Task: structure prediction
Amino acid sequence: MSTDLIQETAPLTIAAAVDHMLDTLPTAGHELREENRHPFPRTIQVTKDNKTDLCAGKDISRGGIGFLHIKPLYGVIIVSMTTPVGDHFRFLAEVVRARQVGRFYEVGAKFIERIV
Result:
């Protein structure tokens, strides 16, 4: 991946981009984590090792995203998503959790940088 695709002011860029997405979403209730999670029941694209899969989004916060995948993921991924109003965003993210839930894996990924 070309480093010129990644914006250098990632924390502010990530926060601004996710804030833009969250403006139209309800909150998921009281949260013990640092950032409030919001339901994000939308299809997202997850790219790992040059292979892209469609996944079911679960929730999103300023810090990361939760989604369902058919297999466990580890390491760094690219997450691409579109907001309800049609804005498209891509993030470099690190998988921090992958646990089996029935036939699927619930994956949690922490945003590292926004890809522009």
Residues 42 and 57 are 5 Å apart (CA to CA). Residues 3-28+35-115 form a domain with the Thrombin, subunit H fold (CATH 2.40.10.220). The first helix runs from residue 10 to 22.
